[in-house]
Amino acid sequence: MKKPDARLTIHMASSLDGFIARKDGRVDWLETADEFAGGDPMDPEFVEAFLKTIECYVMGSRTYETALRFEAQGLGWPYGDKPTFVLTSRDLPRSRDTVEFHRGDLAQFVNGRLRPAFRSIWFVGGGMVSAECLRLGLADEVRYSILPVLIGDGIPFFQKLDRDIALHLAEVKAYRNGMVELRYEVRGHRGGSPNAT
Ligand SMILES: NC(=O)c1ccc[n+]([C@@H]2O[C@H](COP(=O)([O-])OP(=O)(O)OC[C@H]3O[C@@H](n4cnc5c(N)ncnc54)[C@H](OP(=O)(O)O)[C@@H]3O)[C@@H](O)[C@H]2O)c1
Questions:
Q1: What burial class does residue 164 get, using C-beta atoms within 10 Å of its C-beta: 0-12 exposed, 13-18 middle, 19+ buried?
Q2: What are the E-state strand segments in the chain?
Q3: Is the CB–ligand 1 distance for residue 84 below 6 Å?
Q4: pTM for this predicted structure
Q5: How would residue 4 be classed by pLDDT, with cut points 50, 70 and 90?
Q6: Are 143 and 10 within 8 A, CB to CB?
Q7: Does any ligand 1 atom lie closer than 6 A to the CB of residue 12?
Q8: Separation of alpha carbons 93 and 157, rounded Å
Q9: For residue 125, how far is its CA from the centre of ligand 1 (angstroms)?
Q10: Is the pLDDT of residue 196 over 50?
Q11: Cβ of residue 179 lying under 6 Å from some atom of ligand 1
Q12: Which candidate among 40, 57, 91, 105 keeps its CA 20 to 30 Å from the CA of 174?
């Protein structure tokens, strides 16, 4: 049976011009030197407590390969000990016990496997998987963290969609490092707020 409040969130960080990585996959621009005096500090205790609420991560194979490269460079594994599902049709190296590969029907996987087991399901990229998730009507909310930088070209946040997706702006937060976090509920979706449909 589905957990009644199972929620699927798409979250990524993007440049102001809507890119999640440079064409060659680099995300060096995520580190910016901006300071916005009116912004909230990024309180590590709050971040830690918030991360605890995420029950599993889902990502495309290219995002997984990037995470493996970062780890090999000594930058750590950002998904802790949470179950991490990687969408791929290839045989990729399994870096740890918490990683599980999935191929096949994404809607069936989300509704039949993830929603019954996890309350807070985070899709963490990339652009291809996020678009597929929206196209299939699987996402309840989109969290968009905008960094104060323009990079001109790169991999877009959402790759091509075949229709408009109406959203309801549910939360806006600005941080001292110049990052703005927008949280949108997907309208007309069972996960949206009643007045967002
Ligand atoms: N800024 C951020 O917050 C952020 C977050 C995440 C990623 N990124 C960056 O984004 C880039 C990757 O994004 P991307 O859009 O190129 O790729 P992606 O979405 O990470 O991965 C796409 C791949 O996932 C597999 N896939 C997709 N849908 C599937 C499905 N339903 N079932 C099975 N496999 C499926 C396919 O690979 P196979 O060939 O393996 O089948 C597909 O080529 C990386 O450079 C990463 O660093 C940035």
A1: exposed
A2: 7-15, 19-21, 56-60, 84-87, 99-102, 120-123, 141-147, 155-156, 167-174, 180-186
A3: no
A4: 0.93
A5: low
A6: yes
A7: yes
A8: 26
A9: 6
A10: no
A11: no
A12: 57
